[in-house]
Amino acid sequence: MLRPSISDQEFAQFQRFIFDAAGISMSGAKKALVSGRLAKRLDHCGLASYGAYFKLLSSGSAEGEFQTAVDLLTTNETYFFREGRHFEVLREHALAAAERGREFHVWSAACSSGEEPYSMAMTLADALGKRSRWSVLGSDISTAVLARARRGHYPLERARLLPSPLLQRFCLKGTGEQEGTMLVSKEVRSQVQFAQVNLNEELPRLGPFDMVFLRNVMIYFSKETKREVVKRIASTLRPGGVLCIGHSESLHDICGELRPIAPSVYRKPGNGA
């Protein structure tokens, strides 16, 4: 069956669709991505054009399909210990909190398939052990990636930056039919909770957190969307809490009450973290 092409008008409809659903501004360079990711859904729904699929999503009668389209258009591949300096910052702040006898709570606010929150959990398990209570929350708008995250089962190549001692301590290497894969240990998985959260809407009751990772997602947001998202995120940080963003991102002119303390690291004024 020949794949239908997506017209400029149809692509513009999906640009608006994903902006309204998730606050993501999709450039014209993503036209092929949209076409490729949604093609199978046209087949599944028995539709002959992207315009007909958009009409189905807009009808209000296909809630499950609406979420499927959001999942397909927002999912990005990631890996363990991406931008490793932030995990050093996490360790430093966690140890400082432990010295003060405080619990430590962190949030991976755009966690995709879970590599980031599990990296956070491994860092905290290694640094704190049972010295103090700690927790990790991972959230994403996509239910599909959250389902994968909860399983904690990954291709081994995603662990290429995972420090070897942590890999050996907290992961199980697949054998036989599972060769080339790894499973995050039950010890680590039990410390991570996952939830669906749309950062482009009013947040559910969350926090307070000592640290939030909001990395490599704001590059898809408009400046106004960034401002609103950062404001919501800041409200979940306790005084002295820290926000980490991607190294290629910036909060220039939109950081609000947050103050930069290092490249891509911001602190909420208040008591020392």
The gist of it:
With 273 residues, the protein is α/β, with parallel strands linked by helices. The chain contains ten helices and ten strands. It is 42% helix and 18% strand.
Fill in the keyword field for this structure.
3-stranded antiparallel sheet; 273 residues; 7-stranded mixed sheet; 10 helices; 18% strand
Task: Describe this protein's structure.
The strands form 2 sheets. This protein has a 7-stranded mixed sheet. The mean pLDDT is 92. Strand 4 and strand 5 form a beta hairpin. It starts with 7 loop residues before the first helix and ends in a 6-residue tail after the last strand. The chain is built from 10 helices and 10 strands.
How confident overall, as mean pLDDT?
Answer: 92
Poorly predicted residue ranges: none
Report how far the terminal alpha carbons are from each other. Answer: 58 Å
Based on CA inertia axes, which overall geometry fits?
Answer: globular
Topology:
Layout: H1 8-22, H2 31-45, H3 50-58, H4 63-74, H5 85-99, E1 104-108, H6 115-128, E2 134-140, H7 143-151, E3 153-155, H8 164-170, E4 171-173, E5 181-184, H9 186-189, E6 192-196, E7 209-214, H10 223-236, E8 237-245, E9 259-262, E10 265-267
Parallel strand pairs: 1-2, 1-7, 2-6, 7-8
Antiparallel strand pairs: 3-5, 4-5, 8-10, 9-10
